[in-house]
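JOB MANIFEST
job_type = single_chain_structure
chain_count = 1
residues = 311
[input]
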Amino acid sequence: MKKILTVTLNPAIDVRYNVENMRVGEVNRTKHIEKNAGGKGINVSRVINQLGGDILATGIVGGFTGKLFLSKLNADGIKNNFLETEYETRTCIAVIDKDIKGITEFLESAEGTTEDFKKFVEKYISILDSGVDIVCGSGSLLKGIGTDAYNVLIEEAKKRGIKFILDTSGDSLKKGMEAKPFLIKPNQEELEDLTGKKFNNLSEVVDTAKEIINTGIENVMVTLGGDGAILVTKEKVYKGTFPKVEIKNTVGSGDSTIAGMAYGLSMDKSIDECFRLAIACGTTNAMVDSTGSIDHEILKDITPKIVIEEM
């Protein structure tokens, strides 16, 4: 089994409120509350850990919230090695009301400095040199850190022959792509924002992914919500779909998809089988209440039902 490193440069304490009959502008009392270590890379870490992978989580945390974050991560049994700074780690709140479609979210931003990032890069290089095979860089960047932060991390990984999976959006995705990571995973909306195009059919999504492959990125996986996902490699195009299931919570499904892909690679599975596991993990996450989590019994049942077709 190969070692996986996840990078979360803008982690959070994720607070989840379950309420009934939410009323804007009035007092609302929670029926249930959860506080967890969060951030896209942490969701990836949690699922890989649940799969039994060899995982280490790193990134930048700070302040009292950062200490709470690390205690939650340790309680989850996720090995970690974070840079601790003075800047307070953010808190993100999700409000779930079963009678309201969708999830109401309040997302804080958090600060960082270029000096913090320089210190983190030193730590990151040290971790890479200790023996890492796959890196997953996920999520947004701290304010004050340049949009080219992922470029630095990707280039350091590539120098050492380490595969880098990038899952971010906006300017950090656009800049990160310049360093030619092993795989990127935008959803359709993020791909449209990236290219300035509005896709009318699947063929247009595939053609755009092929254009990205031609720039030197090895693999492009585009998630399509309820329509599954596509994976475009240098040689082939795959379409993956999942059966009709009861959806409980889609938050973290994209991160769970990344986790399945990374874990599959760590087990030397073929790329199409990695893709199958990726979709299975994303689907399983959507079928459970927790964010960035899987249920092994559901995963065992769902995986053989994932249909992978070569286009």
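[summary]
The chain has a mean pLDDT of 94.
Residues 166 and 184 are 5 Å apart (CA to CA).
exit_status = 0
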